[in-house]
Each structure stands twice: as structure tokens, then as C-alpha cells.
């Protein structure tokens, strides 16, 4: 592989020593798995990034405290159905009780248990069912891809597909594996949606570099996707490293660290695109690339403005090459550029075509443009001709089903 | 009236000396009026505020130049159907030619003609039809409410209702009238939408104070509405004052200026609410009041975050008291507050009820909440208990029809 890594099958149990299990705990759904557990045979170094919403769910606060105090992590307990957000002290107590239950079942310290929830805001967890679910999962933990896949299905809410990615890379004389799972796909109740992502690796890497790698990476992956512009109270990305690959520990920035970061990027970018492409009600993954920017930040601001524009998203749903909306969204993004220098292209499996040159429409075929935009993955590429920087953002179209899903009464 | 002014019938021709006309110029629509002209018997002082989008339509650039050079204004020519945006030098030339045509037809200087367009981005104006429309309207200009009403209908695009407001206030020994018309209701093509507002007054007021009054007022009116978060390339608010009321000229800030500002606020707030309540595809005007803020800016940021949240807007469409979405939107707004101190109320003609107290849900009736949220005008009131400042923002619900209108192919 040109980039030095190899995508492989699997998810959160792809890396050595990681096990997973799931169960139907009856939190809110019936007849489906709704709890998952991730476990590492040995304690892990842990990095995490969390929602910037100042309304933070209790599990976010619990995990933040564990990550900040530098606790070793060995297990993660996740439930779908109830977000444990806006639940006050009672909600915090439930995080502690969940960790305690897992600690007892697994024979590990309570501080090494991380927790995550997705679902309805404002409702308290049924602690008896959570505890029973933890007790049921502990003996079922297994290595191999099946456990990871089951876990990735148990954390789904309005997601229509489970989401996994994994990769292998040679580092420090050993094969290092990074794998993860995540869920989308909107924000919250009644759709019980939140962005949760869990990535595991058997790499040996210092805690500082693990944190640095994750913090840097999310800027170009999870932070560059949007389904509806609503930042959840529960968003969480956890990265656990147990060192079992046997590589020489990565302790400084250099070729090994860069190789790890490239492989991590692949996993996180793949998972991010899966979230965007499975956004609530959506029919297409919509990718926007800004090229020729003076700064990376400028490119990001422009790309995100386009993928979050309701009008642009509705046009993508209609397979309509409505370039005025894209230029308009770039114009109100807050980034400076010269509209009269912009080139714009649409691209998909069905082809590639230029739509505007130097800010003015070229004589393109609407029919051909519609053909390009009728694919399940479509891309808009804008070159603003100011420099060499670029950025990519991923979103989805705005559809009748998005409205339907989110207007339905809670029940 | 407590506030010292009296709402009256009428719009852009309510104030003394203002005339209007409309015509079916065949710009893009067929079988309907699509051009309007506003004319004052004598030259006016003019103030204007324009889109902050850096992709600015040609008519915006034309008007900005006239307002900045302090030119007296005597006529405004408006067309629906084509936005004259992203049209390069050719588009600028058409503004000049439109002004020239009106100047000749009306016998006034070209520099005293303002222009405005709303409609498709990227298409050139059919200049022959524009010129013919101007020639047809000049002899039809009339005082009285009928001309103003016809003009307010001619500038509609996806608007379902024409939008007018007028008010009278006693200032400096005379009755001053302020009246206006505007249009919404999304952003652009294929819906040919833009926020355009034209307000006229017979008040005698210095140009500096006229500009100051408008600039201050839009912060709490037009800038506090959102239909879809997409800022148009054409947004324009023009305020023309011809001084024919005969009041002692307002030349300094004081009671007369304040009375003028309160009356202007009424007109602009009324027009703003009409735009929000007639947003593309919407079924309800959604008002959000933030109270108890430490600063006005904080209150505004919070109110605007809630009215632009797609998830909250979809819940309003579903008549669903989904308070978690409101708290979530406040949380990611960027404003600081303590989520655990927030009280939230829903209110409409059907009643008022508290939903959360100190950040936690009270034991409210979902049935009663749904009843309150089933009215055509609904209000959410959040008290964040940090101070005495407040702000109000207006939006609308997110519906199937919004998606339908905006996903349809251009035709």
C-alpha cells in the first residue's frame, strides 16, 4: 500500500487482546441487542475526545475524569436507548454504579471502566437492567470478529448499518492493528442518536502520543462530518491501546508515530464517512473538497459551510446541480475568498464535470450533472485558487425521511 | 398606545408622498406581476443594510454604492424571478441600465434610483423586459394602499402571503407614518428567495440618524430571524425618508428619535415575523425568547441557536415538546450558561406550561404540551437566571414541504 497500511476486516476486536460482547438488556428497545462491552486482556492507555456541548451527558463527564486523571482503561460499557443526559446527580451515580458492576464482574479496578450512552435525553437509566446486562456480558466476552460485529450492532439507534473499520501497519518491527466501531446518525431523542466511536489498538505507544494522535486526527475526521448541525450532548471518541502488538514502544514523533497516525486516520476517516453516509433519512454521502486555500482553517470553514447548508443538502437529494447554493454557502461561511475566482466540479462514479469557472457557470449539461448527482456517493470540489491547502468534509442530503424521523412523536 | 405609536393598515405607500406600481414583465414567471416600483414625490434620505455574504448580487453592490455616497433616493425598481447574482460585469451593467431607464421614465437623476432583485442565481436579466417593465410602471404609479399592496405581491417568490406593515407616531408636532413591505422565504433558486424589505417614511430626519436607526434596529429584527440558516446573496433592507410629514426634523438622539425608533421597530419586527412565519414549507411561526441573560449578546446567541436547530424545528413540526433538543442547541451555541439552572416554558394561544425547572423535566402533561405546540404561532421561553437581559428570535418548523420545495429540479 502506498500509505503503508493495509485495511482489513473487523472492528473493535481486530487488535490483539481485545474482546467484546453484547446483550439484550431491555433498556428501551425490545427484541434487540442494546448493550455492548469492550474488554482488553491487559490494561490500556486511553485517549478520549468528547462533545464540546456545555450540556454534557453524565457518561461524558465520567470518561473525561478518567482520561484526565490518566487512569488505565480495561473495559467500556455502552448502552443504547437512554442517553443519561440532563439527569443530574442521579445520572452521575448511575455511571459509577455501572463501572462498579463491571469492575466486580471482570475483576478489575472501577476506575478502569469507561461508560457511554446514546438515546433519549432526560430519562434515567433502569439501573437494575444495566447491572443485569453487565453481568450477562462479562462471561460472554470473546476475541474474534464476531464479538466486535455484535457489539457494533448493539450500539445502533437510528443507524441503518453497523459501522466498523480496521487496518494493519508495520511499526517498530511488529504488525500493529487498529480497529474501531461507531454509531450515528442524528442527535437525540426521539431518535436516540449520538456520535459514539470506540477505537482499539494493540500498538505500544506512550499516553501523551496516544492523546496527541487522537486529538490531531479528529480535527480532520469526526469534526469534519455533519448530519444536521446539531452537536450532541453525548459525543465521545475513545482510543484504547494495550501494547500487545509487541512493537518497540512509540515514545516520540517520528516515522513510527507518523505510520501509526496514517493508519489511525484511515480507521477514523472510514468510520466518519460511514456516519455521514448513514445520516438520518439520507440517500447519499455528500463529500465536499475545498482546494487551493490559503490556509487549512479557511478550507475547513468553507467545506463545513457547504455540507451543513440545508438548501445545498436538499438540492443533493433532488440530484440538482444547484451550484448557486454552494457558492452562497461558501460566501456566508465567514472565510474570505474571491467568488469570481472559484472553479467548481461535481464528481461521482458516473463521471466528473466542471460546473463553474472563475465564478461563472460554464456551458454544462444539466442532464449529465443530474446523472453524476444520482449516485449514492457524490462529491463537490471547489478550487478557490489562493494557495495549496485543502480540506474535505462529509455530510449527507436532506430528505423527507429526515423530517419524518425527527417530527414523529416520542413513544 | 403604551408604546406611543398606532399600527395602521398599509405598507410601502402608507407614508405621505410615496407611490407604487407593479407590472407583469415576464422575467421568469408567466401570468403574474413580477416587477414593482416605489417612488417618492420628492427626493428621500436613504439608509440601507445588505447581506454579509461575500458573494453579493449586483443590485446589492449598486445600492451599497449609492447609500455610501449619500445620494438622495427617489425610486426603487424591484424584480422577482432572477437574482442578478454571480453575473459578473454584465450584471452590474444591467443595474446601471435599469436605473437609467427609470431615471428617464421618471425624470430624476440616475443616481437616485435603487434596484433590487430576487430569484435564480447565475442567470442574466432579460434587459429588454426589465426596460419595458420600467416604462410600463412609471405612468401607473399611484398613492393609496392599493399600489403598495400590488407592489408587495409582485415581489413574492415562494412566499405564500404578501407582507406589509405600517404605523403612525406623533413626532415633533406632526403625525409621522412608517410603512414597509418585504418578502422571504428561503434563500435562492429554484425557489428564487431572498429577504428584501422596503420601508418608507414621511418623517423628517437627518441622514445620520436614519442610518443609525436602521442599523440598530435590524440587529433585533431581520437579523433575529432564520428560515434555513442560509444567508442569501441578495438580502437588502432599504429605508427611505422624504420628510413630508412636516415634523420638526429629528437631528439628535432624544425623545423624538426614540419615538421614531420604537415605531420603526414595530414595522420591522412585524415584517420580520411575517417572513419567519411564511418560511418555505412551514406550518408554524416559532418564537424563542431567552430571559435572564447576563448580556444581550448571550441572549441572542442562545435564541438564534434554538431557532436554527433542524432537530428542534422538526420537533415543532411534529408538535413534540422535545425539550432536550432545545437545551442541546443552547449548549452548543457557544454561549456560556449553567444547564442546571435553566427553566423552560412553552406558550401559545392554547396556553402556557413549564417543561423544565433547573435543567430537569417537571411532571408535565405531554398531551397538554402537544396541544400548545399545535397552534400556528408557538413560543419557547428559556430563563437562564444569570441577569436581566433578554432577546427574541423568530423561525419556523422544518417540514416535508421545505424539502420538497428545495429538492425539486429547477425548471
- Continuous helix count of chain A: 11
Greatest interface: A-B, 65 and 66 residues
Specify the biggest β-sheet of chain A.
Answer: 9 strands, mixed
Helix share, percent of chain A: 25-40%
Order of helices and strands of chain A: EEEHEHEHHEEEHEHEHHHEEEHEEH
Counted beta strands of chain A: 15
Distance between the termini of chain A: 49 Å
Principal-axes geometry of chain A comes out as globular
- Give the oligomer, counting copies of the same chain as homo and different chains as hetero: homodimer
Radius of gyration of chain A: 22 Å
Instruction: Please state the structural category of chain A.
Output: alpha+beta
> Which runs of chain A of at least 5 residues are low in confidence (pLDDT < 50)?
188-192
Q: How would you state the average pLDDT of chain A, rounded?
A: 90
Beta-strand fraction estimate of chain A = 25-35%
Describe the structure in brief.
With about 400 residues, chain A is an alpha+beta fold. Chain A contains eleven helices and 15 strands. The interface between A and B is large, with 65 and 66 residues.
Note the main attributes of this structure.
homodimer, six-stranded mixed β-sheet, alpha+beta
Write the layout of secondary structure elements.
The structure is a homodimer of 411-residue chains.
Chain A: E1 5-8, E2 18-23, E3 35-50, H1 58-68, E4 73-82, H2 88-106, E5 113-120, H3 127-137, H4 145-154, E6 163-171, E7 174-183, E8 196-201, H5 207-220, E9 236-241, H6 255-277, E10 285-293, H7 296-307, H8 310-317, H9 323-331, E11 343-348, E12 351-357, E13 360-361, H10 366-372, E14 377-383, E15 389-396, H11 400-407
